[in-house]
Design a protein that fits this description.
single chain; 266 residues; 7 helices; eleven-stranded mixed β-sheet; alpha/beta
């Protein structure tokens, strides 16, 4: 291994267990330490950098993840494209636990997180009108179909601060707004990737119906429910990611993520 990779994966420790013969690399960044050491391994003939966003043994809650350090470290290793699987709750009765959603929009409902690398002087306004890389989204969708997953094309992910789950009223409101999935880690991760001109796409594994989805008014989400559902679908998620990685060739010259900073700086 050379300590370099062009493809990165943010995820939980479950996917990392499948990386055989991985090289462990620690990266210093201007924003402190990343969540953990980065492991680099060959996946389908490609060097892939894997970073558990919550750290080893899930030590970091969503609001304490060092998002800027994580993205910066990936770029330092040469990563150009990042696949970002995540657990998510469903706000749509038609999107059941066990399904996958390749989201195409996010809504930020977090607070207190540092969402940019550009703190001044001057201002940099990066467009996030379409926040996820179209080429990576296509790769995830095709890989999901190949492995027989229930994979959905498109959906809005509302990202909440956590670590608590929603009240019933909050959850109903999110559903009334027409959003499909709810998560605690998707922002500012996606926005920071765009500021570094990295390709980034997220695939949400649906682990539960959010509390306000009135399929069962007495049922509330628990952490145990989420972990159990995630573990039950880990093998298919792993196969999906491996197929997606194997389908990636050279980063397209016309990829819009490459030029995210063009015209953004004042």
């Amino acid at each position: 291994m050379s300590g370099r990779a062009t493809i990165g994966v943010f995820g939980g420790s479950g996917f990392g267990r499948f990386l055989e013969g991985a090289e462990e690399v620690r990266v210093e960044t201007p924003y402190g330490d990343p969540s953990d050491a980065i492991r680099i391994a060959d996946v389908e003939g490609q060097p892939v950098a894997f970073l558990p966003r919550h750290g080893r043994d899930h030590a970091l809650p969503p609001h304490r993840i060092p998002y800027r350090a994580n993205l910066w470290a990936m770029r330092e290793l040469g990563v150009e494209r990042i696949l970002a699987p995540c657990a998510a709750g469903s706000l749509d009765p038609g999107l059941p636990p066990g399904a996958f959603c390749v989201v195409d929009q996010f809504v930020d409902r977090t607070s207190g997180r540092v969402p940019t690398f550009y703190d001044g002087p001057g201002a940099t306004h990066v467009s996030t009108a379409d926040p996820y890389c179209p080429h990576l989204r296509d790769a995830l969708l095709e890989a999901g179909r190949r492995v027989g997953a229930d994979v959905r094309d498109g959906g809005t992910m509302v990202v909440v601060e956590g670590p608590r789950f929603s009240t019933r009223a909050e959850s109903r409101w999110y559903r009334q707004m027409g959003w499909q999935v709810i998560n605690m880690t998707g922002y500012p991760e996606a926005a920071l990737a765009r500021e570094l001109e990295l390709c980034y796409a997220s695939i949400a594994l649906i682990t539960d119906y959010d509390t306000g989805v009135d399929l069962d008014a007495g049922q509330a989400v628990t952490a145990d429910d989420v972990l159990t559902a995630f573990a039950a679908n880990l093998d298919i998620l792993r196969d999906l990611l491996v197929h997606a990685i194997g389908s990636l060739s050279v980063r397209p010259a016309d990829d819009p993520c490459r030029s995210a900073l063009a015209g953004a700086r004042l």
